[in-house]
Amino acid sequence: xxxxxxxxxxxxxxxxxxxxxxxxxxxxxxxxxxxxxxxxxxxxxxxxxxxxxxxxxxxxxxxxxxxxxxxxxxxxxxxxxxxxxxxxxxxxxxxxxxxxxxxxxxxxxxxxxxxxxxxxxxxxxxxxxxxxxxxxxxxxxxxxxxxxxxxxxxxxxxxxxxxxxxxxxxxxxxxxxxxxxxxxxxxxxxxxxxxxxxxxxxxxxxxxxxxxxxxxxxxxxxxxxxxxxxxxxxxxxxxxxxxx
Length: 244
Known about the structure:
Blueprint: H1 8-22, H2 30-37, H3 43-53, H4 55-62, H5 69-80, E1 83-86, E2 91-94, E3 99-100, E4 116-117, E5 123-127, E6 130-132, H6 134-137, H7 148-151, H8 155-165, H9 167-173, E7 177-182, E8 185-190, E9 199-205, E10 212-217, H10 224-231, H11 237-243
Protein backbone atom coordinates (compact mmCIF):
# COMPACT_ATOMS: atom_id res chain seq x y z
CA UNK A 1 0.00 0.00 0.00
CA UNK A 2 1.15 3.57 -0.74
CA UNK A 3 -0.09 6.52 1.34
CA UNK A 4 -2.78 4.39 2.99
CA UNK A 5 -4.42 3.39 -0.31
CA UNK A 6 -4.84 -0.13 -1.66
CA UNK A 7 -2.72 -0.83 -4.75
CA UNK A 8 -4.08 -2.40 -7.92
CA UNK A 9 -2.93 -5.89 -6.99
CA UNK A 10 -4.80 -5.77 -3.71
CA UNK A 11 -7.95 -4.43 -5.43
CA UNK A 12 -7.70 -7.33 -7.86
CA UNK A 13 -7.56 -9.74 -4.93
CA UNK A 14 -10.56 -8.00 -3.31
CA UNK A 15 -12.59 -8.35 -6.50
CA UNK A 16 -11.64 -12.02 -6.72
CA UNK A 17 -12.81 -12.62 -3.17
CA UNK A 18 -16.09 -10.78 -3.78
CA UNK A 19 -16.74 -12.89 -6.90
CA UNK A 20 -15.88 -16.04 -4.99
CA UNK A 21 -18.30 -15.18 -2.21
CA UNK A 22 -21.05 -14.34 -4.66
CA UNK A 23 -20.63 -17.72 -6.34
CA UNK A 24 -20.52 -19.59 -3.00
CA UNK A 25 -17.17 -21.20 -3.64
CA UNK A 26 -16.27 -24.71 -2.57
CA UNK A 27 -15.19 -25.24 1.03
CA UNK A 28 -11.74 -26.44 -0.13
CA UNK A 29 -10.88 -22.85 -1.07
CA UNK A 30 -11.99 -21.38 2.22
CA UNK A 31 -8.57 -21.63 3.91
CA UNK A 32 -6.82 -19.66 1.17
CA UNK A 33 -9.54 -17.02 1.36
CA UNK A 34 -9.01 -16.91 5.10
CA UNK A 35 -5.30 -16.27 4.60
CA UNK A 36 -6.03 -13.31 2.36
CA UNK A 37 -8.75 -11.95 4.63
CA UNK A 38 -6.43 -12.06 7.63
CA UNK A 39 -3.44 -10.45 5.93
CA UNK A 40 -2.09 -7.20 7.39
CA UNK A 41 -2.89 -5.14 4.30
CA UNK A 42 -6.50 -6.28 4.36
CA UNK A 43 -7.35 -5.45 7.98
CA UNK A 44 -9.22 -2.21 7.30
CA UNK A 45 -11.30 -3.89 4.62
CA UNK A 46 -12.14 -6.73 7.02
CA UNK A 47 -13.15 -4.31 9.78
CA UNK A 48 -15.43 -2.38 7.44
CA UNK A 49 -17.17 -5.30 5.78
CA UNK A 50 -17.02 -7.53 8.85
CA UNK A 51 -18.74 -5.03 11.10
CA UNK A 52 -21.15 -3.46 8.64
CA UNK A 53 -22.30 -6.40 6.53
CA UNK A 54 -21.40 -9.48 8.54
CA UNK A 55 -19.05 -10.55 5.73
CA UNK A 56 -16.49 -12.19 7.96
CA UNK A 57 -19.19 -13.98 9.95
CA UNK A 58 -20.46 -15.44 6.68
CA UNK A 59 -16.98 -16.72 5.85
CA UNK A 60 -16.64 -18.41 9.24
CA UNK A 61 -20.14 -19.88 9.54
CA UNK A 62 -20.88 -20.79 5.91
CA UNK A 63 -17.49 -21.24 4.22
CA UNK A 64 -15.74 -22.74 7.27
CA UNK A 65 -12.93 -20.20 7.13
CA UNK A 66 -10.61 -20.68 10.10
CA UNK A 67 -10.98 -17.78 12.51
CA UNK A 68 -8.04 -15.65 13.66
CA UNK A 69 -7.39 -12.88 16.21
CA UNK A 70 -8.41 -10.19 13.71
CA UNK A 71 -11.43 -12.28 12.78
CA UNK A 72 -12.53 -12.49 16.42
CA UNK A 73 -12.17 -8.73 16.69
CA UNK A 74 -14.40 -8.29 13.65
CA UNK A 75 -17.01 -10.60 15.12
CA UNK A 76 -16.95 -8.66 18.40
CA UNK A 77 -17.37 -5.40 16.48
CA UNK A 78 -20.29 -6.88 14.58
CA UNK A 79 -21.90 -8.02 17.83
CA UNK A 80 -21.57 -4.82 19.82
CA UNK A 81 -21.15 -1.92 17.36
CA UNK A 82 -23.12 -0.40 14.56
CA UNK A 83 -20.08 -0.11 12.32
CA UNK A 84 -16.49 1.02 11.92
CA UNK A 85 -14.89 3.45 9.48
CA UNK A 86 -11.10 3.23 9.66
CA UNK A 87 -8.24 5.15 8.07
CA UNK A 88 -4.52 5.16 8.87
CA UNK A 89 -5.01 8.20 11.15
CA UNK A 90 -8.59 7.92 12.48
CA UNK A 91 -10.98 5.15 13.43
CA UNK A 92 -14.65 5.98 13.90
CA UNK A 93 -16.79 3.47 15.80
CA UNK A 94 -20.50 4.14 16.15
CA UNK A 95 -23.13 2.54 18.34
CA UNK A 96 -26.19 0.67 17.21
CA UNK A 97 -29.49 2.56 17.33
CA UNK A 98 -31.62 1.98 20.42
CA UNK A 99 -34.78 2.16 18.31
CA UNK A 100 -35.73 1.15 14.76
CA UNK A 101 -39.29 1.34 13.43
CA UNK A 102 -40.64 -0.04 10.15
CA UNK A 103 -44.01 -0.22 8.42
CA UNK A 104 -45.60 -3.45 7.14
CA UNK A 105 -43.68 -3.06 3.85
CA UNK A 106 -40.33 -3.01 5.65
CA UNK A 107 -39.78 0.73 5.09
CA UNK A 108 -38.45 3.00 7.82
CA UNK A 109 -41.56 4.54 9.33
CA UNK A 110 -42.84 6.14 12.52
CA UNK A 111 -45.62 8.60 13.26
CA UNK A 112 -45.05 11.43 15.70
CA UNK A 113 -41.68 10.03 16.79
CA UNK A 114 -38.28 9.08 15.32
CA UNK A 115 -37.94 5.98 13.15
CA UNK A 116 -34.26 5.71 14.14
CA UNK A 117 -32.92 6.86 17.46
CA UNK A 118 -29.54 6.67 19.19
CA UNK A 119 -28.72 6.93 22.88
CA UNK A 120 -26.91 10.26 22.37
CA UNK A 121 -30.14 11.85 21.12
CA UNK A 122 -29.44 11.75 17.37
CA UNK A 123 -32.51 10.59 15.50
CA UNK A 124 -34.01 10.24 12.03
CA UNK A 125 -37.66 10.80 11.15
CA UNK A 126 -39.16 8.84 8.27
CA UNK A 127 -42.59 8.28 6.77
CA UNK A 128 -43.06 5.13 4.68
CA UNK A 129 -39.42 4.99 3.70
CA UNK A 130 -38.94 8.72 3.03
CA UNK A 131 -36.80 10.75 5.41
CA UNK A 132 -38.68 13.81 6.62
CA UNK A 133 -37.60 16.84 8.69
CA UNK A 134 -38.26 16.94 12.42
CA UNK A 135 -40.92 19.64 12.03
CA UNK A 136 -43.11 17.07 10.25
CA UNK A 137 -41.87 13.90 11.90
CA UNK A 138 -42.58 14.91 15.50
CA UNK A 139 -46.25 15.60 14.62
CA UNK A 140 -48.80 12.84 14.04
CA UNK A 141 -50.04 12.78 10.41
CA UNK A 142 -53.61 13.44 11.58
CA UNK A 143 -52.35 16.80 12.83
CA UNK A 144 -50.38 17.73 9.71
CA UNK A 145 -51.64 20.94 8.17
CA UNK A 146 -52.59 21.32 4.53
CA UNK A 147 -51.10 24.83 4.49
CA UNK A 148 -47.63 23.26 4.85
CA UNK A 149 -47.99 22.21 1.21
CA UNK A 150 -47.93 25.86 0.16
CA UNK A 151 -44.47 26.53 1.58
CA UNK A 152 -42.83 23.11 0.99
CA UNK A 153 -40.57 23.29 -2.09
CA UNK A 154 -39.37 19.66 -2.10
CA UNK A 155 -41.62 17.59 -4.41
CA UNK A 156 -40.96 14.33 -2.54
CA UNK A 157 -41.88 15.88 0.81
CA UNK A 158 -45.03 17.40 -0.72
CA UNK A 159 -45.99 13.91 -1.89
CA UNK A 160 -45.48 12.57 1.63
CA UNK A 161 -47.56 15.37 3.14
CA UNK A 162 -50.38 14.74 0.65
CA UNK A 163 -50.24 11.03 1.47
CA UNK A 164 -50.40 11.66 5.20
CA UNK A 165 -53.00 14.42 5.19
CA UNK A 166 -55.32 12.87 2.60
CA UNK A 167 -57.23 14.58 -0.18
CA UNK A 168 -60.44 14.82 1.86
CA UNK A 169 -58.84 17.19 4.38
CA UNK A 170 -56.90 19.03 1.68
CA UNK A 171 -60.19 19.76 -0.12
CA UNK A 172 -61.70 21.27 2.99
CA UNK A 173 -58.69 23.14 4.35
CA UNK A 174 -57.47 24.61 1.05
CA UNK A 175 -60.97 25.44 -0.20
CA UNK A 176 -61.07 23.48 -3.44
CA UNK A 177 -63.04 25.12 -6.25
CA UNK A 178 -66.00 23.26 -7.76
CA UNK A 179 -65.68 22.70 -11.52
CA UNK A 180 -68.59 20.35 -12.27
CA UNK A 181 -71.09 18.01 -10.62
CA UNK A 182 -72.91 14.87 -11.71
CA UNK A 183 -75.28 13.09 -9.30
CA UNK A 184 -73.31 12.47 -6.07
CA UNK A 185 -69.96 13.27 -7.74
CA UNK A 186 -68.14 16.61 -7.82
CA UNK A 187 -65.03 17.56 -9.77
CA UNK A 188 -62.83 19.94 -7.78
CA UNK A 189 -59.66 21.89 -8.43
CA UNK A 190 -57.21 23.15 -5.83
CA UNK A 191 -56.07 26.41 -7.36
CA UNK A 192 -53.25 26.92 -4.86
CA UNK A 193 -49.87 25.51 -5.89
CA UNK A 194 -49.55 22.42 -3.68
CA UNK A 195 -47.94 19.99 -6.13
CA UNK A 196 -45.83 19.87 -9.29
CA UNK A 197 -48.93 19.73 -11.49
CA UNK A 198 -52.46 21.08 -10.85
CA UNK A 199 -54.50 19.04 -8.36
CA UNK A 200 -57.90 17.88 -9.62
CA UNK A 201 -60.03 15.77 -7.32
CA UNK A 202 -63.21 13.76 -7.74
CA UNK A 203 -65.27 14.05 -4.58
CA UNK A 204 -67.73 11.21 -4.04
CA UNK A 205 -70.55 11.06 -1.50
CA UNK A 206 -71.52 7.55 -0.43
CA UNK A 207 -75.35 7.51 -0.33
CA UNK A 208 -75.53 4.71 2.25
CA UNK A 209 -72.98 5.99 4.79
CA UNK A 210 -72.87 9.70 3.97
CA UNK A 211 -69.07 9.58 3.99
CA UNK A 212 -67.11 11.76 1.58
CA UNK A 213 -64.18 10.31 -0.38
CA UNK A 214 -61.81 12.12 -2.72
CA UNK A 215 -59.65 10.66 -5.47
CA UNK A 216 -57.07 12.50 -7.51
CA UNK A 217 -57.72 12.51 -11.25
CA UNK A 218 -55.68 13.83 -14.22
CA UNK A 219 -55.71 17.64 -14.58
CA UNK A 220 -57.20 17.43 -18.08
CA UNK A 221 -60.59 16.31 -16.75
CA UNK A 222 -63.35 18.75 -17.73
CA UNK A 223 -66.43 17.20 -16.15
CA UNK A 224 -67.36 15.01 -13.19
CA UNK A 225 -68.71 12.35 -15.53
CA UNK A 226 -65.45 12.05 -17.52
CA UNK A 227 -63.56 11.85 -14.23
CA UNK A 228 -65.81 8.97 -13.11
CA UNK A 229 -65.13 7.20 -16.41
CA UNK A 230 -61.40 7.53 -15.79
CA UNK A 231 -61.73 6.15 -12.24
CA UNK A 232 -63.82 3.22 -13.53
CA UNK A 233 -61.32 2.29 -16.24
CA UNK A 234 -62.98 4.23 -19.09
CA UNK A 235 -66.40 2.71 -18.36
CA UNK A 236 -69.30 5.17 -18.43
CA UNK A 237 -70.90 5.45 -14.97
CA UNK A 238 -74.33 4.47 -16.32
CA UNK A 239 -72.87 1.35 -17.94
CA UNK A 240 -70.86 0.60 -14.81
CA UNK A 241 -74.02 0.79 -12.67
CA UNK A 242 -75.74 -1.67 -15.03
CA UNK A 243 -72.83 -4.12 -14.92
CA UNK A 244 -72.60 -4.06 -11.11
